Every structure is written in C-alpha cells, then in structure tokens.
Amino acid sequence: MLDNLAVPKFIGRISGHNSFDSAFFGINKKQCDDMNSMIRNVLERSYEAIVDAGLNPEDVSNTRMGVMMGSNISESENTKLLLGNHNYGYRILGHNRALLANRVSYWFNAHGKSNSHKI
C-alpha cells in the first residue's frame, strides 16, 4: 500500500512519442529534439482529425478554418526545459503552449482565428 497518496499507483503513458516525423511537419530536427511531446502530439492528432473527417489536408489549406484548443502543463515540459540533454536554442519555442493552435493553423495554412487557452 502506498503511504504517500500524492504518488499514483498507476500511470498512463503515450507510446511512440519519439516517432514524430519532423520532416513531414516541416520542423527542424534540432527544434523537434527540444520540443515538448504535447506539441508534436497536437500536430499529429490534428492531421488525423482532418483525415478521419474524410478531408484531404490540402482541402483546408488557404481557408478560414479556425483552431481553438485548451492546454495545461505537461510533465515532459518541466523535464525537457529544466533537465533536457539538448540545448539548440529552441526550448522556449518548443514549449510555448500559447502557440499550440498557431502551430496547427500554420501547418494547415489556415487563416481563421487561432487561439490557445490555458485550462
């Protein structure tokens, strides 16, 4: 039995978090190495959502598609920012949750509103 209730008995982990295709998303490999896995995951899931909706990602390019999302701090954010092995000068860009929606909008070339909200 755990004496410290702050430590969970079980945790969830995302598999394949190191398999991000930086070239596909047009992100510099060094920037990707310093990037929070949440940002990589948001880009991948956004792409999947468009495809799962039956759209070709090129169909939303140059449209007024809006991107709104909420985010909270991630465990890997503190680990990578404070203890990261790489320091290529991209850490602030790679961990800025305020830019989450903007990254998605930029990648899809969407021109609608783009907002990230801290939840």
From TrEMBL:
It comes from Timema californicum (California timema). InterPro entries: Ketoacyl_synth_N, PKS_NRPS_Biosynth_Enz, Thiolase-like. GO terms for molecular function: fatty acid synthase activity. Residues 13-115 form the Beta-ketoacyl synthase-like N-terminal domain. This is (California timema) hypothetical protein. GO terms for biological process: fatty acid biosynthetic process. Coiled coil: none annotated.
